[in-house]
Amino acid sequence: MTDLVFKGQNDQVLTNSLLVAEKFGKRHADVVRAIENSLTKGSESTNAKLRSSFVLTTYEDVTGKSN
Question: pLDDT confidence of 6, banded at 50, 70, 90?
C-alpha cells in the first residue's frame, strides 16, 4: 500500500483523496463527497479557511481517462 502522506515542494506534507480512500477502505467518490460536504457546513470564514487547505486536481487513470 502506498504511504498516506508524501512531501511536495518545499517539503510540504501532502496527501490526496485517492490515498485516503485506499488507506481507509472507502470509495473515492464517498471521500470526495465528504470533503465537499465539510467545506460547506461552517461559517463562511471557516469554510474559506478550510478551502485553502484543498486543491482541485486531475489525474489520468489506467485507461487514460482524465478524472
Answer: confident
